Amino acid sequence: MRRTDKFTLFWGGPFSNWYKRDFTVKGRKFNCGEQLMMFAKAMLFGDLETAEKIMKEPNPRKQKMLGREVKGYIDKVWQERSPGIMAAGLFHKFIQHKDLTQIILDSVGTRLVEASPDDKIWGIGLHEDDPRAWDEAQWLGLNRLGSTLDVTRDRVAEHVAARNASPSYG
Length: 170
What we know:
It comes from Pseudomonas amygdali pv. lachrymans str. M301315. By secondary structure, this protein is mainly α. It has helices spanning 33-44, 48-56, 60-67, 75-95, 98-105, 144-165; strands at residues 2-3, 7-10, 23-25, 28-30, 111-114.
C-alpha cells in the first residue's frame, strides 16, 4: 500500500477483496470480500447451487472462478447492482474489526485506488509502481473497488462518529 496526499494505492492487503478476514452479514459468515461478492452474484441471479459452492470454498481465487459459472448471469444487471452490494457488505467487514476500522479511517482525505494491473473494472489496470497509477487521467481501468471503498469509508466514519456521540450506559 502506498499513499500520497491524494491517493491510497493498494493491491492486496486489507482493502483487497481477497484479504482473508471473517465477517458476518445478515447472519452469514464470509471469509473475504470476494466470497461475499461471488455469493451475492449467484443469489442475485437465483443460482442457489453455485451460491452454496461459493460458501463452501475457502480460496478467493476459486470463489472468483465459481462466480464466473453463475447461471442466468446478465452483465448489465451485475454492473449496475454490484457496487451497492459490495459497499453494503464491506461496511460490515470494516466495522466488525477495530484494526480494519482504523485502517480505512486512516485513508480519509485520499481516494482509494486498486492498483491491479490485471483488473480494468474493479481496479485501474496498472500496478502501483507504474508512474501512470498516480495520474487518474492515465488509468486504464474504472477503479470500481476503490470507489466502492470510498463510499464504505464514509459510512464507517459516520458509524464511528454516531457511536462515539452516543452516551454509554451501564
